[in-house]
Amino acid sequence: MSNKITLITPPDFYENSNFSIMLLGLNEQDQDAASHWLGQVDNIDNINFYFYQGETNLEWLFYALNRSDLKFINLDSNLTIINYLSSYILGRPNVYYTTKNENLKSLMSYINNKYVPNIETFLREAFNDQQK
User: How far apart are CA 63 and CA 83, in angstroms?
Assistant: First the structure.
């Protein structure tokens, strides 16, 4: 059986019952780390990745936020929409975040306590939880 990863980006919508993860504001290092991590794992069942990089399609963003089982946001993103909506996004269920800014981390901990140091930690936790 081959595992299938479906990457979904604006403006596309995709409906199925697969486990879904949303990735927001990834920088190039995050993208490389995620690709490398996913390439190393054998136990990934069919999964959807919603990938958002600041496009102005807010209908898609809100749809994907609601549709995804887990979300990961890099708060160090320089994308305006992500910066403006980050506190709203962090208030949603099952959102994990990373930042290198200790002051921002401290501030956002009042909204959300699911800080992870990097995307690899998030993916490890996401796939361990999916297996339970």
Answer: 18
Q: Which of 3.10.450, 3.40.50, 2.60.40, 3.40.1620 is the CATH number of 5-131?
A: 3.40.50
Mean pLDDT by 10 residues, the chain (132 residues): 81 90 95 90 84 93 96 95 94 97 96 97 85 46
The predicted model scores a pTM of 0.92
CB-based burial label for 104 (10 Å; 0-12, 13-18, 19+): middle
Residues 105, 96: Cα–Cα separation, whole Å? 12
Residue 8 β-bridge partners: 50
